[in-house]
Amino acid sequence: MEKARDFLGKVAAGDETDRVSRLTFPAHQPHLNPSFYEYFVLRGIHLDRVEPGSLSCSFKVPPRLTDRDGKLTMGAIATLVDEIGAAVIHQEGNPMDVSVDMSISSMSDANINDELEIISRCLGRRRAYSGTHVLIRNKTTGDVVAEGRHSLFSIPTSKM
Questions:
Q1: Phi, psi at residue 10, to the nearest 5°?
Q2: Beta strand 46-51 pairing with 54-60
Q3: Residue among 71, 79, 83 at smallest CA distance from 112
Q4: Selection from 80, 91, 64 nearest residue 120 by Cα
Q5: Per-residue pLDDT tens digits for 36-66
Q6: Which residues pair with 99 in a beta bridge?
Q7: No. of H helices and E strands in the chain?
Q8: Alpha helix positions (H), 1-160
Q9: What is the H or E stretch that residue 155 is in?
Q10: DSSP labels for 12-53?
Q11: pLDDT tens across 85-106, in order?
C-alpha cells in the first residue's frame, strides 16, 4: 500500500508524469478480444461440459477476486453470472447479447482456493429476448454459493 501511495504522490507532484504518459494500451476491440476486466475475472475458468442450452464450468477461487477476509466478492460473482449466463446462449458469428436484467441471490461464502462448479442453463428464448439461470456451487461441500437469473436481448443483425 505504501508503494502505491508513494507512486501516486509522485504522479500528483509531476515527478512521474512522463513515465505515466508513455504507457500505451491497445484499443479494445469489442466482441473480438476480452476486455481487461473480463480477462481479470474469467482467467482460470475451465469448461467441463457443453450441451445445447447448457454448460458447466469449474473455477478455483483466486486471491485476486477476494475481499480482505478471503471471501469471493459479490462483484466477481456478478461478473460470473453475467459472462457464463451470456455464454450459454451465444451463437457463433453473432455479437454478444446485451444484458437487460440480472437478479443474484447470495447463499453462502466461497473462500480462496475453493473449487466452484458453475452451471448455466438457457431458460428460454422468445424472439430477441433470452433468459438464463446460473448456479454457482462449492464442489467440495455442495453448498450453493449464489444463484442468478439473467435476461438478455439479442442485437438484430443487419439485413444489408
A1: -65, -40
A2: antiparallel
A3: 71
A4: 80
A5: 667 677 788 899 999 988 999 999 999 989 9
A6: 152
A7: 4, 6
A8: 2-13, 17-21, 36-42, 74-87
A9: none
A10: HHTTTHHHHHT---PPP-TTTS--HHHHHHHTT-EEEEEETT
A11: 888 887 776 667 777 788 999 9
